[in-house]
């Protein structure tokens, strides 16, 4: 049967993608950011996941104010990079795994999660930047991807507890799929940052590192109890993206083993966080 072998958390700062695309990764400003992913690239080249369930948020590329799904799962065969106003990123199309995606969608809906099913959409930096950080710049992505989009842009976003429970349900769905697949779950977005208003540029290193500790060591109770207000107060308006990490964390079970950790300030106007975790049975 299919099995979830690891979880990855990472920021998806759009300027990181631009730095890679414009060959600026060795510049002094950017080098410390990318150095934190060297270990991860070596690790994932050894792990060779068949499928990545990639939890991210769309940035008005596939969805807009007309349609705002709380949770949407991509069940298509292929997804093109989105044009976010300056042309699509020069990265490969994302190949989906429709059979597993449809199985997960059915399992989640019967498990009483109201999923939006997407058969066609373009994917923006929220998905492609994590792929580039982990896989570099190949001619073809080495893993198939199931996009799972979460609304963290427009109020009300889902609670951290609901995201954790969705992760648990995803784990049950994957484990019931009969094909032998090595599956990873990635939670993307975050960490502390605010892009507008009087608090634009907010960074909270202390809170970010506490959150990384909880993701690595906690059984989930403290993570699930963090309220929307705390995310917004302590990490800025865009820090709410960290609830998406809890979907990954919930899918791994209560106990995990941290394999790698990276935290860096500043990249563009955000903090960058990254974790690699494996479940402990």
Automatic annotation (TrEMBL):
It comes from the Bacteria. The keyword Kinase does not apply. Residues 9-272 form the Extradiol ring-cleavage dioxygenase class III enzyme subunit B domain. Keywords: Dioxygenase, Oxidoreductase. The keyword Oxidoreductase applies. GO terms for molecular function: ferrous iron binding; oxidoreductase activity, acting on single donors with incorporation of molecular oxygen, incorporation of two atoms of oxygen. Gene3D superfamilies: LigB-like. It holds the Pfam family LigB. InterPro entries: Xdiol_dOase_suB (IPR004183). NCBIfam families: PRK13364.1 (NF009901), PRK13365.1 (NF009902), PRK13366.1 (NF009903). This is Protocatechuate 3,4-dioxygenase.
């Amino acid at each position: 049967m299919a099995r979830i072998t690891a979880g990855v958390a990472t920021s998806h700062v759009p300027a990181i993608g631009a730095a890679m695309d414009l060959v600026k990764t060795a510049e002094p400003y950017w080098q410390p950011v990318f150095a934190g992913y060297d270990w991860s690239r070596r690790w994932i080249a050894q792990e060779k996941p068949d499928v990545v369930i990639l939890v991210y948020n769309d940035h008005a590329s596939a969805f807009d104010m007309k349609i705002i799904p709380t949770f949407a799962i991509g069940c298509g065969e292929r997804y093109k990079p989105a044009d976010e106003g300056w042309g699509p990123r020069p990265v490969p199309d994302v190949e989906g795994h429709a059979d597993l995606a449809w199985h997960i969608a059915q399992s989640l809906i019967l498990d009483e999660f109201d999923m939006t099913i997407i058969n066609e959409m373009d994917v923006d930096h929220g998905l492609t930047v994590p792929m580039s950080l982990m896989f570099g710049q190949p001619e073809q992505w080495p893993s198939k991807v199931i996009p799972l989009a979460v609304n963290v842009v427009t109020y009300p976003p889902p609670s951290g507890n609901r995201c954790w429970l969705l992760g648990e349900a995803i784990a049950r769905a994957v484990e019931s799929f009969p094909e032998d697949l090595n599956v990873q779950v990635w939670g993307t977005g975050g960490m502390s940052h605010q892009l507008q208003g009087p608090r634009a540029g907010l960074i909270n290193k202390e809170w970010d590192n506490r959150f990384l500790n909880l993701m690595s060591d906690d059984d989930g109770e403290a993570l699930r109890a963090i309220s929307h207000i705390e995310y917004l107060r302590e990490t800025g308006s865009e820090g709410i993206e960290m609830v998406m990490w809890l979907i990954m964390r919930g899918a791994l079970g209560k106990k995990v083993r941290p394999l790698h950790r990276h935290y860096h300030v500043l990249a563009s106007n955000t903090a960058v966080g990254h974790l690699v975790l494996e479940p402990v049975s």
